[in-house]
Amino acid sequence: MNAQVSSPQPAERKTRGRPRDPGAERRILDAALEEYGERGWSGFTMDAVARRAGVGKSTVYLRWQDKDSLLIDAVAARTGSIEDVDTGSFHGDLVEVSANLYRHYLDPAGWATLRLAVDAATSPSSLGTVSARLAEQHTAAVLAIVARAIERGEAPRDLPAAPLVLCLYGAVTMQTLTLAGSERQLPEAEIRRRVTELVDFVLAGRT
Amino acid sequence: MNAQVSSPQPAERKTRGRPRDPGAERRILDAALEEYGERGWSGFTMDAVARRAGVGKSTVYLRWQDKDSLLIDAVAARTGSIEDVDTGSFHGDLVEVSANLYRHYLDPAGWATLRLAVDAATSPSSLGTVSARLAEQHTAAVLAIVARAIERGEAPRDLPAAPLVLCLYGAVTMQTLTLAGSERQLPEAEIRRRVTELVDFVLAGRT
Amino acid sequence: MNAQVSSPQPAERKTRGRPRDPGAERRILDAALEEYGERGWSGFTMDAVARRAGVGKSTVYLRWQDKDSLLIDAVAARTGSIEDVDTGSFHGDLVEVSANLYRHYLDPAGWATLRLAVDAATSPSSLGTVSARLAEQHTAAVLAIVARAIERGEAPRDLPAAPLVLCLYGAVTMQTLTLAGSERQLPEAEIRRRVTELVDFVLAGRT
Amino acid sequence: MNAQVSSPQPAERKTRGRPRDPGAERRILDAALEEYGERGWSGFTMDAVARRAGVGKSTVYLRWQDKDSLLIDAVAARTGSIEDVDTGSFHGDLVEVSANLYRHYLDPAGWATLRLAVDAATSPSSLGTVSARLAEQHTAAVLAIVARAIERGEAPRDLPAAPLVLCLYGAVTMQTLTLAGSERQLPEAEIRRRVTELVDFVLAGRT
DNA sequence: AATTAATCGAGACGGTACGTCGGGTCTTATG
DNA sequence: CATAAGACCCGACGTACCGTCTCGATTAATT
Predict the structure, then answer these.
(1) What DSSP designation does D42 have?
(2) Which of A189, C155, D66, D75 has the fewest CB atoms within 10 Å, measured from its CB?
């Protein structure tokens, strides 16, 4: 998916003057993500990002109005491809998509998505919609899974999809929330175990 | 409840010289909360807090080692009394406790709890336990509710309490996450409606 | 006079390709002078000059290698025709030429000449000769006047011309130096009065 | 002399809070002068000054509002003790004071005084008076010399002192103006020779 | 007519310095 | 001693300009 979230300039296509370096954007986003991963939020510096991307600060500020916007986009760019999943069974799909989210949250960049969403919720800025947009992407993916399951007759026609998404994603979020720094290295098997437990709970008596 | 979380210096009682102004602590915490509510995280300034509290910066730093600690305490001080609930029915208790959480999250100070928990999860600092402690409080409360329900025969003995808590709290969290600034004023009825939907979903086929 | 001082590229005459816009040079110099007059040195910007001249920055940098060179030329272009003066008497000539200089210094562009000369004196750049060249022009003019006066018998054959030039020009310079922004609008009569006083002093006992 | 020219803050004496480091001011001024001497105007950086002075940038900006103000003060601080001179004879005094000025101008810091004066004359800022104040100091010194000479009977009672000062100082200024970088190392004897020539010219027929 | 080569306006580029702001510490004089 | 005030060092912020570069679009002189 990976749609720009707060997105560099509305892009008035006139092609007057030197065109923007098409590679710069990618390089900056990557640099931002790496910096964020290595130094964390409080060590995250625009100067460092620019330097690492081999770019002048003006080039960064030409595309993003401030630090937050950049980080949001950098982080949102990573938030793709969680969603498309098709294992053949309803239960399997939910486990798969939840495990994806779980893994996403264990990655510093992925976790940053959540942090920014939390920030955005109360901040007076215009970025308030970030979380909503991100959430929509996820929701849509799970809704597709549910629709498929209903088609296949694996789920009742009146299965309340919205609460299901909220519960599943929320549960994963809450669980990763309690994992401190060192514990954030879970083996794949453990992730699947935890996720399966949640899916089982959510699906109990509905298949 | 309101246990100090990272807490002003243990304060070795020796009482030589001028005693600490007993009101200062409260004034600082209040000021911190107000500042945080009005300006958000990025506008939250130690100078501003001190000024609003009518206090010197040293007085603040004498009690809290840094900005994070202060905000954590300021926020934790508000985080009380979510938990004890007894409406007489399992369903009612869950609705009540979820609504409490919902309301808590709509308050800037309450929301800050979540933000700090998110921060703490990846930060190398010693605050990593904050979220855990907070989560424990909540979990314990819901576990008590579940135990009571089982006693009353309203729930099966093998009801998986842990996933239930995660799903319910997670779902509330995710839902408030998508609420932007202006939408964060929900009428009580709307809160109950949303919460009831979630509880119904979680309890379906289990009562 | 108006010789190019650091001058737009020697221009190797080959004339293939589009010829340079003949008006651009003039427009840029004018714009530079106006900008300098309005904003002063620290507000003098290449972008602004280009914009005002209705020209791309490349067009400017194609003709002058840097900001200094442009300003020098812009300013030197205005520095003409101070020198040729012939009133018929020695005293009259000196008054005339001094008044010319005085007026020149009250004009922002003229004043800029001095500023650049001062800059050039210590800067390691190759502009070091600017002041010298300018000074030579002036000196030559006054020397001509002195020679004429000696011919006419108005001045002794051993009149030390060099110190005379230094004193006269120096005195005018120092006097304009103490004039702040608002005071730099002197009526013609006042200029003549001040200049006459200086010439009288310098000529005393020598005619 | 060395009066503050644009001078750090009017200084509202209340002595609340930590007093300003009394050494900082001196250290900053010295650092500024050294930086200016070594790197010249265009290489003169606030960061470098602060670093060299072992001081934070805020400490600098607390005392001077911007780069210009600092440089003016740094440079003005050096402009002292040119003036007091008493060799016993009128001619000797003038030679002495002129040689002092000459030497002052050959020093980068001293030359900067002139540069700033020139800047100040046209700049819209409030520093327009710098040059005037500086000039006054010098003028006053020479006037004292003239007065003494008249007392001693070495000069006529009606000697026009003002033009004399202007001519002498102006001539020295103009002469140093034509000296390029490398030529600015004159042996003491050469300075005296040049200065004596000027004084002789100015005094001719008046002693 | 097609080609070639230079110039043009526009504006993005990598840098560097600016002046501001905030964190956390330190130093006074006053309780 | 603690306190209120406020200066201190540090380092990041976002802006502004410099001088360079790269576009697409002219504009002539040369094929």
Answers:
(1) T
(2) A189
User: Under 8 Å CB-to-CB from D198, ≥6 apart: which residues?
Assistant: C163, C166, C167, D98, D168, D171, D172, D175
Of the CA atoms within 13 Å of residue B198, those in its CB half-sphere come to 32
Compute CA distances C58 → A16, B166, C55, whole Å: 15, 63, 8
Q: Which of C124, C204, C116 is nearest to C159 (CA)?
A: C204
Three state DSSP letters for A170-193? HHHHHHHHCCCHHHHCCCHHHHHH
CB contact under 8 A, A40 and B111: no
Q: Is the Cβ pair A163, B171 closer than 8 Å?
A: yes
Chain B stretch 162-181, residues whose beta carbon is closer than 8 A to a beta carbon of chain A:
163-164, 166-181
How high is the pLDDT of residue A70?
93
Report which of B94, B131, B136 is spatially closest to residue B112, judged by C-alpha positions.
Answer: B131
Please state the rounded mean pLDDT for residues D79-107.
Answer: 86
Distance CA A13 to C1' F15 in A: 25
Which residues, including other chains, have CB under 8 Å from residue A65's CB and lie 6 or more apart?
Answer: none
State the burial class of residue C53 (Cβ atoms within 10 Å of its Cβ: 0-12, 13-18, 19+).
buried
Report the chain C residue with the minimal C-alpha distance to residue D159: C201
> What is the C-alpha separation between C104 and C99, in angstroms, rounded?
8
Q: pLDDT of C54-99, one tens digit each? A: 999 999 999 999 998 899 888 877 766 566 788 989 999 999 999 9
In chain A, residues 57-86 whose CB comes closer than 8 Å to chain B:
68
Chains linked to B by 3 or more Cβ pairs within 8 Å: A
* First-to-last C-alpha distance (Å) of chain C: 30
Those residues whose C-beta lies under 8 Å from the C-beta of residue A85, and which sit 6 or more positions away, are: A93, A96, A97, A100, A141, A145
What pLDDT does A128 receive?
55
Note the pTM of the prediction, 2 decimals: 0.83
CA distance D194 to B204: 106
User: Distance between CA C9 and CA D14 in Å, rounded?
Assistant: 61
What's the CA gap between C5 and C128, in Å, rounded? 11
* Beta carbons of A138 and A113 less than 8 angstroms apart: no
Minimum-distance CB partner of A205 among B40, B168, B204: B204
Q: Which of B174, B111, B100 is nearest to A171 (CA)?
A: B174
Alpha carbons within 13 angstroms on the beta-carbon side of residue D153 total: 0
CB B171 within 8 A of CB A167: yes
In chain F, which nucleotides are within 7 Å of a protein Cβ? Answer: 1-30
Tokens standing for C47? 């972008």
**Euclidean distance between CA atoms B169 and B154, whole angstroms:** 21
Q: Cα separation of B131 and A173, whole Å?
A: 12
Q: Pick from B155, B157, B195: which is nearest to B173 by CA?
A: B195
Euclidean distance between the first and final Cα of chain D, in Å? 30
Cα–Cα distance for residue pair B189/C7, rounded to 1 Å: 80
Rounded Cα distance, B93 and B142, in Å:
9
Judged by 3 or more CB pairs under 8 A, whether C touches D is: yes
C20 CA, F27 C1': Å apart: 10
| pLDDT in 10s for each residue of chain A, 207 residues | 333 444 444 444 467 889 999 999 999 999 999 999 888 888 999 999 999 999 999 999 999 999 988 998 898 777 665 667 889 899 999 999 999 999 988 988 788 888 888 877 777 655 556 666 677 777 888 888 999 999 999 999 989 999 999 999 999 999 998 887 778 889 999 999 999 999 999 998 777
Q: Which helix (H) or strand (E) holds B142?
A: helix B129-152
- Asked if residue A138 lies in contact with residue A101, where contact means CB atoms within 8 angstroms, the answer is yes
- Cα separation, A78 vs D182, whole angstroms: 60
